[in-house]
C-alpha cells in the first residue's frame, strides 16, 4: 500500500493529553512527538499510565484533554477505518479463539482494506503471505494458534498487525510472560521492521534492560506524567532509574554494543526497589 | 477460512456448501415422508413439484407436513445462528439463547400477553417475544456486569441461570393459576413444532430474515470481535455499533424462533460448536453453516420426536435436550 517511508519525520504526536478510565484521570498532560521509522519504547512502573497512553493514542480510550495528531489530523475525529489503514494496534495479552489457524488470524489484519463487497483480493493474499514471512510464522500457517508456544503465538499477532500494512504500529507489552531469549528475538524482529521497512513503532515494555538495548527513543513515565525522554544514552541513567522506578542501580555500558545496562544494587545496606 | 484464504482447489470450494444443501434437502424430504402414514419420497417430491389436490397424500403433505418441516428449518437455522453470534461476541463457548435467558424471557412475555391479557394475535407474537428476549438479555448482561470481575463467561452463565430460574418459576405460577388458558400453551412451552399456526410463521419471517441478513453482514467483524474488543478497534471496527447490530440479530432470530415453536433449548449451543469442528473459527463460514446445520439438525430431531414412541409424539423441544445434552458432552470431551 502507500507506505512512504518518511524516516525521521514525525507523523504521530501527542499534544497535552490527559486520559483515563471512566472518571479517573490516569495520564496527565503528556506531550510527545513520535519519531518516524524508529523504535519508541515507553517504560515506567506499574500503573504509571504507559498502557493508558498507548490505548489513547490508538483511540481505544478517549482523551479528556488535549489531542493525538496522526498526519496532522486528530485521531479521535478521523473515521476509525481510515485510522486503521495508517495505525495498527497489538493489544496486551490478546487471546485467539480456540482453534483459529495462524493464517486466519493474520488475515484479520486485512479488515481495514476490505469492504462488504470486496472481501478478499489478491492484494490481501499477498499481504498475508508477506506478513507471515516477515514475522517468521509461515511454517505454522495452517496450525491452530493455540497449539503454539508463547513466543510463536506473539509472532503470529505481530504478523497480523504487519498484514494491516500501516506505517505506524503500537504494541502494548508484547513480551510479557516470555523468556528473555524470546523477548530479545521479538525485539530484534521489531527493530528490523522499524529500521529496514521504515515503519514507526511505539512499544510499551516492562523489561528495562531490553528497553535500553533496543530503544531509539526512550520515554519514561511516572504517575501519569512523562518524566524523561531521549536517546537511551542520555535518558537511561541511574539518576532517572532512581527517580522513576525508585530503583537503586548502576548503569554500565554493554561491553559489546556500548549501550547502557542497568545493574540493580544488591550489596548490604541497599534494598532492591526500595520505595 | 482454510477455504476462504487462497483456495488451492477452486472447484472444491463449492463442493462443501453443495453437499450441505443436498443433505438438508434430503432431510427435508425424509421429514415430510415420516408420519402416521409413511409416504414414499418420490410422492413427496411429486406433491411439492406438481401438486394435485385430488390425491389424498398430496393434501396431507402440503397442508399438514410441509408447514411443520418449514418450521423446523426456520427455527433450527434461527437458533443456531443466534447461538453462534452470541458465542463469538461474548467470547463465551456456553453462550446460547437458552443458557443466557433469552428463550425464557421471550416465552415469559408471550405467556403474559397470551395467557393473562388474552391477546393471541399472530402479528403480535414475534414483537412480544422480541421485547421479552431483549429485557432478559439486558437483565442478564446487567447482572453479569455488576458482578465483581465484570461480564465474564462464568458470571454471564450464572446470571442466565438465575434469570431463567426466576422467569421459569413465574411461568409455572401463571400456568398453575389458570390451567384452562394454559392448556394450549403448555405444549408450546416445551418447544413444539406440532399444530403451530401458519400465520405466526408469516409474521415471524421478516424478523428472521432481517436477523439472518444482519448476521451474515456482520459475520466478518464477529470473527475479529471474538479476538477481543481492543483488537477490533485497532482493526478499524466501530465496536459499539457492531455490538448493537449483533444484539438486534440475536434478539430477532430468537424471537422468531420462540414465536413459531416456543423455547427450544440446546440447538443454539450444540450446532455452532459442531460446525466449528469442520469449518474453523471464521464467522463468514460459521454463520451460514450454522444456519444449514441447524435446520438439518432440527429436522432430524423432529423426525426422532415423531418416530421414537410412535404413534405418541414427544415434544420436539424435549428431544432437542435429550439428544443435545449427550452430543454436547461428547463435544466437550472431544474438543472444547
From TrEMBL, chain A:
Protein name (database record): ABC transporter ATP-binding protein
Pfam family, one: ABC_tran
Matching CDD domains: ABC_Iron-Siderophores_B12_Hemin
One GO biological process term: iron ion transport
Topology of this chain in the membrane: Peripheral membrane protein
Keywords assigned: ATP-binding, Cell membrane, Ion transport, Iron, Iron transport, Membrane, Nucleotide-binding, Transport
Keyword ATP-binding belongs to the record: yes
Chief site of localization: membrane
GO molecular function: ATP binding; ATP hydrolysis activity
The ABC transporter domain, residue ranges: 12-248
Transmembrane segments annotated in the record for this chain: none
Domain of life: Bacteria
Originating organism: Histidinibacterium aquaticum
Keyword Transit peptide assigned: no
Family: Belongs to the ABC transporter superfamily.
One Gene Ontology cellular component: plasma membrane
Subcellular location per the Swiss-Prot or TrEMBL entry: Cell membrane
TrEMBL record, chain B:
GO BP term, example: siderophore-iron import into cell
GO MF annotation list: transmembrane transporter activity
Keywords: Cell membrane, Membrane, Transmembrane, Transmembrane helix, Transport
Pfam families in the record: FecCD (PF01032)
UniProt-annotated location(s): Cell membrane
Any one GO CC term of the record: plasma membrane
Keyword Cell membrane attributed: yes
Main location: membrane
Membrane topology note: Multi-pass membrane protein
TM segment ranges: 12-32, 69-86, 98-117, 123-144, 156-177, 200-219, 244-266, 286-305, 312-332
Family affiliation: Belongs to the binding-protein-dependent transport system permease family. FecCD subfamily.
Protein name: Iron ABC transporter permease
Organism of this sequence: Histidinibacterium aquaticum
The organism's taxonomic lineage, starting at the top: Bacteria, Pseudomonadati, Pseudomonadota, Alphaproteobacteria, Rhodobacterales
Amino acid at each position: 500500500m502507500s507506505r512512504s517511508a518518511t524516516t525521521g519525520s514525525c507523523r504521530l504526536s501527542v499534544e497535552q493529553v490527559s486520559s483515563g478510565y471512566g472518571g479517573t484521570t490516569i495520564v496527565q498532560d503528556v506531550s510527545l512527538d513520535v519519531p518516524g521509522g524508529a523504535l519508541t519504547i515507553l517504560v515506567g512502573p506499574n500503573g504509571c499510565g504507559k498502557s493508558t497512553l498507548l490505548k489513547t493514542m490508538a483511540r481505544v480510550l478517549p482523551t479528556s484533554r488535549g489531542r493525538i495528531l496522526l498526519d496532522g489530523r486528530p485521531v479521535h475525529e478521523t473515521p476509525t477505518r481510515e485510522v486503521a489503514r495508517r495505525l495498527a494496534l497489538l493489544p496486551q495479552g490478546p487471546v485467539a479463539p480456540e482453534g483459529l489457524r495462524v493464517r486466519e488470524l493474520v488475515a484479520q489484519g486485512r479488515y481495514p482494506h476490505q469492504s462488504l463487497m470486496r472481501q478478499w483480493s489478491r492484494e490481501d493474499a499477498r499481504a498475508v503471505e508477506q506478513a507471515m514471512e516477515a514475522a517468521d510464522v509461515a511454517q505454522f500457517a495452517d496450525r491452530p494458534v493455540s497449539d503454539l508456544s508463547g513466543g510463536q503465538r506473539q509472532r503470529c499477532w505481530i504478523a497480523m498487525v504487519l498484514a494491516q500494512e500501516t506505517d505506524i504500529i503500537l504494541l502494548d507489552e508484547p513480551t510479557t510472560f516470555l523468556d528473555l531469549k524470546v523477548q530479545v528475538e521479538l525485539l530484534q524482529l521489531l527493530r528490523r521492521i522499524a529500521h529496514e521497512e521504515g515503519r514507526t513503532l511505539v512499544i510499551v515494555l516492562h523489561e528495562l534492560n531490553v528497553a535500553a538495548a533496543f530503544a531509539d527513543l526512550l520515554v519514561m513515565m511516572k504517575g501519569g506524567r512523562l518524566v524523561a525522554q531521549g536517546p537511551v544514552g542520555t535518558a537511561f541513567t541511574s539518576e532517572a532509574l532512581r527517580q522513576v522506578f525508585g530503583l537503586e542501580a548502576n548503569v554500565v555500558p554493554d561491553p559489546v554494543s556500548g549501550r547502557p545496562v542497568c545493574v540493580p544494587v544488591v550489596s548490604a545496606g541497599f534494598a532492591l526497589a526500595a520505595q | 477460512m482454510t477455504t476462504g484464504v487462497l483456495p488451492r482447489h477452486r472447484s472444491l470450494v463449492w463442493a462443501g456448501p453443495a453437499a450441505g444443501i443436498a443433505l438438508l434437502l434430503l432431510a427435508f424430504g425424509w421429514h415430510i415422508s415420516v408420519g402416521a402414514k409413511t409416504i414414499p419420497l418420490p410422492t413427496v417430491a411429486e406433491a411439492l413439484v406438481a401438486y394435485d389436490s385430488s390425491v389424498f397424500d398430496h393434501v396431507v403433505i402440503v397442508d399438514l407436513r410441509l408447514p411443520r418441516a418449514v418450521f423446523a428449518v426456520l427455527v433450527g437455522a434461527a437458533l443456531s445462528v443466534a447461538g453462534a453470534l452470541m458465542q463469538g461476541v461474548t467470547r463465551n463457548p456456553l453462550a446460547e439463547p437458552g443458557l443466557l435467558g433469552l428463550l425464557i424471557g421471550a416465552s415469559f412475555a408471550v405467556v403474559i400477553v397470551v395467557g393473562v391479557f388474552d391477546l393471541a394475535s399472530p402479528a403480535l407474537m414475534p414483537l412480544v417475544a422480541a421485547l421479552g428476549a431483549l429485557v432478559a438479555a439486558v437483565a442478564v448482561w446487567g447482572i453479569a456486569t455488576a458482578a465483581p470481575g465484570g461480564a465474564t463467561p462464568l458470571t454471564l452463565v450464572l446470571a442466565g441461570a438465575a434469570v431463567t430460574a426466576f422467569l421459569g418459576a413465574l411461568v409455572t405460577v401463571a400456568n398453575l393459576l389458570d390451567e384452562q388458558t394454559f392448556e394450549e400453551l403448555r405444549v408450546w412451552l416445551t418447544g413444539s413444532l406440532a399444530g403451530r399456526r401458519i400465520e405466526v410463521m408469516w409474521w415471524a419471517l421478516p424478523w428472521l430474515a432481517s436477523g439472518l441478513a444482519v448476521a451474515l453482514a456482520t459475520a466478518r467483524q464477529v470473527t475479529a470481535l471474538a479476538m477481543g474488543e481492543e483488537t477490533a478497534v485497532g482493526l478499524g471496527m466501530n465496536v459499539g455499533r457492531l455490538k448493537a447490530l449483533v444484539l438486534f440479530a440475536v434478539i430477532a432470530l430468537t424471537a422468531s424462533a420462540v414465536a413459531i415453536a416456543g423455547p427450544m433449548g440446546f440447538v443454539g449451543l450444540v450446532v455452532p460448536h459442531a460446525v466449528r469442528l469442520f469449518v474453523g473459527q471464521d464467522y463468514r463460514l460459521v454463520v451460514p453453516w450454522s444456519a444449514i446445520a441447524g435446520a438439518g439438525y432440527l429436522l432430524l430431531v423432529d423426525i426422532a420426536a415423531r418416530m421414537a414412541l410412535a404413534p405418541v409424539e414427544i415434544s420436539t423441544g424435549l428431544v432437542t435436550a435429550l439428544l443435545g445434552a449427550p452430543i454436547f458432552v461428547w463435544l466437550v470431551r472431544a474438543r472444547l
